[in-house]
């Protein structure tokens, strides 16, 4: 239990430090004063001051915060105030957090893909009685595209079936250097609990040269970003619910599951699987923070973009109230998700 908690705290800390570090560094480079750089929320456990900035660790591992000078509308303006900075400086400072999460995701993907390889969309076997067999797809075929969407890794196929349940797909596949086309309607599998074309992917991973590692690392990040965006879209359209979200407790449980499933393979598998998990989590955090909800980075960017386009600076107190409402909503949502995660642990 202690080891699982340690892994969670390390993963959480790395992701938050990178995110808040992006805000902090770009803010300082833009001439904006940073009052506090904090990991976690709530009361301060430990901290130290360097220059104008207090660096601290808080009690609750629920995120982090970078507090800039002048973010409180009742606070007196200074030359280093966030509010007095240019639109471009504020935009870059706010965007830097999510951007650094994506950068971290890419660089960790380089390690993972360089170590274990990537999953080519090559068919290993075809399931009897499923649509792929009826459509003439055979083992050894390579899936090129589905409904004009280029397929780069095998998980692109899984992603398509996940978010297009039961829809007929126009599939282009390659066999012996020649392209073929067919239509396939996924069939629901009671055993798997999802729709399947009826073929299985490669049994292992393919290792490539440095350029291929870079290419497939970018593909890995794109895959998780796309997964997050599609999941958000499904939630807003009612296909997913709030109960499908996971908070810190849920993430800690996932970290524990990954550790338990990896430890039989030794330290190397634990290391690689934990890195793969961080690739997913940091890409997810980067995307989620860009959702235009007040108090999130995306909500702040909406105000900045509005000012940049119209030249009209939003009323600071109105903006503060909107952000407070957004923060209150997020805290209520976080408490609900945390409660739901805890109840799932005991079911």
Fill in the keyword field for this structure.
347 residues, Pdz3 Domain, 4-stranded antiparallel sheet, 10 strands, 52% helix
Written overview of the protein:
The chain has a domain at 125-200: Roll (Pdz3 Domain). Helix 5 packs across helix 7 and helix 6 packs across helix 9 (316-345). It is built from nine helices and ten strands. It is elongated and about 70 Å long. It has 347 residues and is of the alpha+beta class. The strands form four sheets. A four-stranded antiparallel sheet has the order 5-4-6-7, with helices on one face. A two-stranded antiparallel ribbon has the order 1-2. A two-stranded antiparallel ribbon has the order 3-10. The mean pLDDT is 87. The longest helix is centred in the N-terminal third of the chain and has 30 residues, at 87-116.
Quick description:
The chain is an alpha+beta fold and 347 residues long.
**From the coordinates shown, what is the CATH architecture of the domain at 125-200?**
Roll
User: Which superfamily, in CATH terms, is the homologous superfamily of the domain at 125-200?
Assistant: PDZ domain
Shape: elongated
Give the radius of gyration: 23 Å
Which percent range describes the beta-strand content? 15-25%
How is the main sheet built? Answer: 4 strands, antiparallel
Weakly predicted, low-confidence segments: none
- How many distinct beta strands? 10
**Highest-level CATH class of the domain at 125-200:** Mainly Beta
Order of helices and strands: HEEHEHEEHEEEEEHHHHH
Quote the average pLDDT.
87
The percent of residues in helical segments reads 40-55%
Q: Spatial order of the strands in the main sheet?
A: 5-4-6-7
Which structural category do the helix and sheet elements fall into? alpha+beta
Distance between the termini: 18 Å
| Number of helical segments with 4 or more residues | 9
- Write the CATH fold name of the domain at 125-200: Pdz3 Domain
